[in-house]
Amino acid sequence: MEKQDLIDHLKEIVGSEYVLTSEMDLMLYSYDASLEKAMPEVVVLPSSTEEVSKIMSLAYKEKIAILGRGSGTNLTGGSIPIKGGIVVHFSRMNHILDIDIGNRTVTVEPGIITLDLQTEVLKKGFVYQPDPASQKVSTLGGNISENSGGPHCLKYGVTSNHILGLEIVLNDGTVVWNGGKARDNPGYDLLGIIVGSEGTLGLVTKIMLKLERAPEAVKTMLAVYDSIQDGANTVSAIIAEGIVPATLEMIDNPVMRAVEETIKVGYPLDAAAVLLIELDGMPEGMDEKVQEVMEICKRNNVRDVRLAKDEAERALLWAGRKGAFGAVGQVRPSYMCCDGTVPRTKLPEVLGKVIEIGKKYNLPIGNVFHAGDGNLHPLIMFDERDKEELSRVLKASTDILKACADAGGTISGEHGVGLEKLKETSFIFCENDLEFERGIKKAFDPDDIINPGKMIPEPVCVQ
Ligand SMILES: Cc1cc2nc3c(=O)[nH]c(=O)nc-3n(C[C@H](O)[C@H](O)[C@H](O)COP(=O)(O)OP(=O)(O)OC[C@H]3O[C@@H](n4cnc5c(N)ncnc54)[C@H](O)[C@@H]3O)c2cc1C
Fold it and tell me: Are residues 31 and 118 in the same domain?
């Protein structure tokens, strides 16, 4: 099909003003929060499942690449249209369709911003738990596709633990619904396959999520360490005592410095690292639990541990954590966020290796991460315009992921594989594993039109 015919067909489906074709518009959809870039042929903004279905069926008939897009905050190149084609931007499908307090569910369209949903349900005294640090901008559609995590996922689990039902538009435009308010559906666990599939199996058009009662009491502590290893040992020690905090986040010295340049939280700039520890639950017994956690910190050589005195101080501590990625832009113009997970007890060892890797490649690396989950986020700071430096960054990132895999961990905690970690899948999968995944992709999308080239590498060609 000629490009103009494709554009005309799409305009018939969604209306002229919701089809974007100018060079400037397309450029805005050519990048995400990773280092990858590629231009789409056309961007379309549907307003309903019916329109998404018609767009998909057109792409299917014409064998045109198609991919969904939320807010483009993906950190591994998942939302980059590497084969051109159609980008389906879900920003108009951003409504809450139903809040059902009796069944503790909320049903939304995929373009809703995560924090907007959370703010609405909190007004009724309920929470949707997964809280990626990007929640002010990320969408539920993106969260589903990447199976996003966040600080509160230590206690409450990642996105997949909160999904009850999904409406999916399949490769030929067929619309299917899986799951619902009744628990324990029979049949294949299709929700399990779709969540975390990085937008490669279909387009998600409705999402039913679990709601939980907002905790009655929350206590937030800042623990200050002169050694990053002592901080990491505290993380394992707290969990080993049978306490599961709502969050256990670590921020190291280089990242604290960057944060203080922008947000002024009052982090101690002479310390090696801080832990942000939050307990939540019933008010009864909360003060005793705080004391217990403080004692564990002391046994692990904490320099100082203090409780946020009010909501304003708590909010400030969190603003520093949530603004940390943006703040490192103060240090160098670009950053690459590596996302590897290790068994919690291996944190001290692997953090030590990350420091060595930074020295080996002469690159500044900061760490701000979900320590309780063993989910590391080394941020390599550099200048993307310096090609020699960029090549060192890519090598350092591979070495970090290898260190995670060698420690019994994996190459993604929550950001996915996308385009940037295709090579590194070999650290955790053999060819048989990957071939099995290719079979699943083929069952959903035999023509390979839905977000092609992501998550699973091409087969190794044996001569
Ligand atoms: C500063 C910063 C902090 C971050 N912190 C965290 C964090 O704490 N935890 C975490 O897990 N991630 C984090 N991320 C990564 C990112 O925000 C998440 O992966 C997020 O879920 C992406 O949402 P999005 O709306 O931007 O999706 P996009 O980037 O637009 O898309 C992500 C993927 O989802 C697919 N997709 C989007 N919508 C649909 C749909 N409706 N149907 C099918 N496929 C779809 C896209 O094709 C793409 O493959 C962070 C990113 C940044 C920049």
Answer: no
Which residue among 45, 48, 75, 421 is best mutated to probe the pocket of ligand 1, counting the most ligand atoms within 8 A of its Cβ?
75
Q: Is 451 in the pocket of ligand 1 (CB under 6 A)?
A: yes
Instruction: For ligand 1, say whether the CB of 149 is within 6 Å of any of its atoms.
Output: yes
Backbone angles phi, psi at 355, to 5 degrees: -60, -45
Characterise 104 by phi-psi region: left (phi > 0), alpha (psi -120 to 50), beta (else): left
Start-to-end Cα distance in the chain: 36
Decide which of 89, 107, 128 is a domain's last residue: 89
Convert the pLDDT of each residue in 173-200 to its tens digit.
999 999 999 988 889 999 999 999 999 9
- Note the pLDDT of residue 1: 87
Q: How far is the CA of 105 from the centre of ligand 1 (A)?
A: 22
Position in ligand 1 atom list of the atom nearest CA 67: 47
What pLDDT does residue 263 have? 87
Domain range enclosing 78: 3-89
Q: What angle do CA 434, 440, 441 make, to 5 degrees?
A: 90
**Any bridge partners for residue 221, and if so which?**
277, 307
HSE (side-chain half, CA atoms, 13 Å) at 196: 18
Residue at a domain's end among 198, 213, 228: 213
Grouping H, G, I as helix, E, B as strand and the rest as coil, residue 307 is: strand
Contact present, 232 and 371 (Cβ < 8 Å): yes
Query: Could you say which DSSP state residue 450 is in?
Result: B
| Within a domain: 105 | yes
Which residue is associated with the tokens 């059902």? 100
